[in-house]
Fold this protein.
Amino acid sequence: MKTIKYLFVIMLIGSFIAFVGCSKDETPEALKIVSITGLGTGLETGLATTVDLNAITAADDVPLDVVITITFDKAVDASTANASNFNLNMGNDPVEISVVANAEVVTITPLNDLARGKGHQLILSADILADDGGAFTATSRVFSTEGIAEVVPPQQANMVVYIPFNNDAESTVGDITPVFEQLNYGSDRYGFPGSAGLFNGATAAGNGDIVEYEYNTAFLSPSMTVTTWFKINSADYSGSRFMFGLAVERGYFMELGSGSVAWMKFATNHMLDPDPKSHVYGVSWSDPNGDGVIGGQVLVDYLGSITDLVADDNWHQLAMTFDSNSSVKTIFIDGMVIMQLDIDSETLEWYLSDMAINEVGVESVIDKKFAIGYAGSRDNQATGWALYANAQNTFKGYLDDFRIFNVALTEAEISQLYNDEKN
């Protein structure tokens, strides 16, 4: 009988040992997501905004400066928390991020603000592990950022300058950065703060808002197109003001006239091809509904009020194209032709051709820095009536989406760009 009791006890002990051994060999439970949230600054409100990125419905209006926090049900193996296992893509393009794990929480921080109005995908790899070795099932989440997506313009490959004025004056195309920047930022035509350049004009001679860029061939081509959106108030225009320019009339400039913007002028300098009186350069003054048509045969001239057309405190698109093959120069407001000139007509004395800078016979300094906010740079001295040091006629108003192309866009392409950008 005792022998049977001893055997029974031994069997119980063995069973207990076997049970404990099986417990130690069990697979750790899988690593699971508890929540995914995004925290950033609302583009429209300027306030801290939290977005649920783990909801059944894909999140939209995610802040551009979002920081993503993923909370798991247990601690994450920090060695698996890296940019190989946590990916953020905009379409097919990867977004550079930093990844930091702290126990159950992984923080993903994009190194730059995300693009506006774009779809993004957050991808989590199956190589992510829990601290206890628990496996993770690969998954992904999609969301879209707030704001209006950047327009793809016609002939995008020929766009050599694009300044969106999103809280800075940098060009997102080419190696073009401002060397001097004095302006503020306001709301764009969609109502997003900090998304348009705000130029406050001069309060005294020589201190008006201006942005300058070192000369680059992107700013001047034989054929070219310039487009920008602007908003002005007629009350600010008792005198004329310059919107932008390169070496004033020796390159090109845009001017809005006095008397509540009674006129406007987009003057351009050109080489001659050839000229019977051996001129080398000539200026096409191009004053719609005015008297500045010297140097061109007028094909179209706007007969309405320039004041009513542009000086109503609303946003408008300006465009100028010049085609050196045909020597036709066209000025548009909101996709509509308001002036068109044939500037090498055989009926004229001056046969204007490629756009160029005129440095002939200049005793003073031509400074070739491109300026937004005035007709030339602060250092340009080649034109006595446009010296920044004496100026109180710098631009006053808003500018946005400034583009330069090294080709002349067609009328249909200008209309397409206007319709795409106004929406």
About this structure: The longest strand covers residues 312-323. The chain is about 10% helix and 40% strand. Residues 181 and 211 are 4 Å apart (CA to CA).
